Amino acid sequence: xxxxxxxxxxxxxxxxxxxxxxxxxxxxxxxxxxxxxxxxxxxxxxxxxxxxxxxxxxxxxxxxxxxxxxxxxxxxxxx
Length: 79
Prior knowledge:
By secondary structure, this protein is mainly β. About 5% of the residues lie in helices and about 30% in strands. The strands form 2 sheets. A two-stranded antiparallel ribbon has the order 1-2. The chain has a two-stranded antiparallel sheet with strand order 3-4. The termini are far apart.
């Protein structure tokens, strides 16, 4: 696995990371998804639309959300 370093700094109250050229996101990309996996921070491109994902027809396993209980129905005034 190719491993490089990047600089970390501050801009006002935001932390910034300067990404080397070969790792930069495509021109025009304005947002990425960010998640933490253990001690690692992972950035992933945020698609402009979900057409590619929906076209892939991703299937979930049979036990997906099997242990999740439905919340009780809330009574509300219709006034």
